[in-house]
Amino acid sequence: MSEKVRLEVDGAVATITNDNPDKHNAFDDEMDQRLFEVLAELRTRPEVRAVIWRGEGRSFSSGRDVSALGGGQVALTHHELMTRGHRGIQQIFDLDAPIVVACHGWSIGASFQRALLCDIRIASDDARFMLPEVGHGVIPDTGGVGRLFQICGHGVASDLVLTGRPMDAAEAYAHGVVSRVVPRAELDATARAVAEQIAAAPAVTVKVARRVIAHLAEPEIRSSMAEELIGQTFISRSDDAAERRAALAEGRPPRYTGS
Fold first, then answer.
1. What does the alpha-carbon distance between residue 9 and residue 245 come to, in Å, rounded to a whole number?
2. Measured between alpha carbons, how far is residue 111 from residues 10, 163, 186 in Å?
3. Each residue of 212-245: pLDDT tens digit?
4. How far apart are the C-alpha atoms of 204 and 185, rounded to whole Å?
5. What are the strands of the beta sheet with 167-168, ordered from one edge?
6. Would you list the DSSP string of 54-80?
7. How far is CA 193 from each of CA 18, 52, 56, 94, 100, rounded to the nearest angstrom?
8. What is the pLDDT of residues 42-79, one digit of tens each?
9. Cα separation values, 212 from 23, 52, 218, 219, Å
10. Where is 215: in which H helix or E strand?
C-alpha cells in the first residue's frame, strides 16, 4: 500500500493527499491503485460529508510518472490499463460526498483531468494547468476533456488540447475551470472552509443536489471516456505511432501520414 497517497478522516471531512513531492506528485501504478482504493473506501464511509483532495510540496500533481511506465507488477495491455483507470476514477461519480480539489503549482495531464471530474476546484495564485498529451502522440484519455468542454466550450478546450499550452490560475478562473483563486498560503485553509461548509449542510440535501448536477453532466463524460478508450487504443497501433517511435529512435523528424 503506497504512502504516496494518504487518506485522513477528521470528523465529517476526509482529506486525500498526493505525497510524492520529489516528483511534483507524479502518479505511478502503485499510486493509482491506492487512489482507487481510497475512493472505494470513501464509498463505504457515510459519515464523510465532504472530501478535500490536495498535494504536498510544489504541485498538486504533474500527471503521470513517465519513468515508471511499464514498471508495474502485472503486465497489462494499453487497453486494459485504460479500462482499469476509467473504472477506478469513475468511482468519483458514485460518492455522496462532494470533492473539493486544492490546486497549486502544476496540475498536468491525467491529474488535471481527474481534478476536472471532481465537484469544486480552488486554485492558488501560482497554479498552472496543462494537457500535453497530443505533443507526445496520444490523446487525453481520463475523461477530463469532456468536463473541460462542458465548462469552457469548444474553442478553449481545443486550444488547450491541441497546443498543450499552459493555462494559469487567472485564465482558469476566467473560464470557470476553477471557482476561486487564493494566495498560496491560504489554499489549504480555504479548501477546508469550503469542505466544512458543505459538511455542515443537511446530508440528504447535499447528496440530492450533487445528483441533480451529475445527471446534467455525467452521461456526456461517460460517453467521452468510452470514445477515448477506443481512440487511444487505435492510436497506439497506428502507423503514425509507429513512425513517431521510429523517428525518435533514429533521431530524425517524423513523417506522419494520418493513418
1. 45
2. 25, 18, 22
3. 999 999 999 999 999 999 999 999 999 999 999 9
4. 33
5. 106-108, 128-130, 167-168
6. EESTT-SB-SB-GGGTT-SSS---HHH
7. 20, 10, 19, 23, 10
8. 999 999 999 999 999 999 999 998 776 554 555 677 78
9. 38, 21, 10, 12
10. helix 203-236
The answer to whether the CB of 81 falls within 8 A of the CB of 87 is no
Alpha-carbon span 107 to 86, nearest angstrom:
19
Question: Which cell goes with 166?
Answer: 499552459
Helical packing angle, 154-163 and 144-152, nearest 10°: 140
Domain ranges of the chain: 5-187+198-203
Q: How far is CA 258 from the centre of its chain?
A: 28
Burial bucket for residue 185 (CB in 10 Å: 0-12, 13-18, 19+): exposed
Q: What is the mean pLDDT of residues 245-253?
A: 96
Question: Going along the chain, which residue ranges are E strands?
Answer: 5-10, 13-18, 50-55, 99-103, 106-108, 120-124, 128-130, 167-168, 180-182
Residue 55 grid coordinates: 498535494
- Give CATH superfamily name and number for 5-187+198-203: 2-enoyl-CoA Hydratase; Chain A, domain 1 (3.90.226.10)
